[in-house]
Amino acid sequence: LGSRVIVQNKPGVIRFIGNTAFAKGKWIGVELDEPLGKNDGIVGGKVYFKCRPKHGMFVRASQLKSLNGTPARRLFSDSATPETSR
């Protein structure tokens, strides 16, 4: 949590890692720097993290890149980080 990443060419900060009620599997919640997202960290009435409107986005680890452009998915191995929100 708190790592700076790029998702779909948009910079942001990881705010949530874990399972969600809206879809199966592990999701990464990212707070984007600009209002280019889809939510405010709340999906279907459930708070996963808090951010400004349209600054939140949920993606799979495979969609993330670290700021230096390398894939960031190795940060999210099953043993690396427990399900957490901020």
Automatic annotation (TrEMBL):
Q: Where is the CAP-Gly domain?
A: 18-60
Q: Read off the SMART domains from this record.
A: CAP_GLY (SM01052)
Identify the Pfam families for this entry: CAP_GLY
The family database entries (PROSITE patterns) matched by this protein are listed as:
CAP_GLY_2
Name the record gives this protein: CAP-Gly domain-containing protein
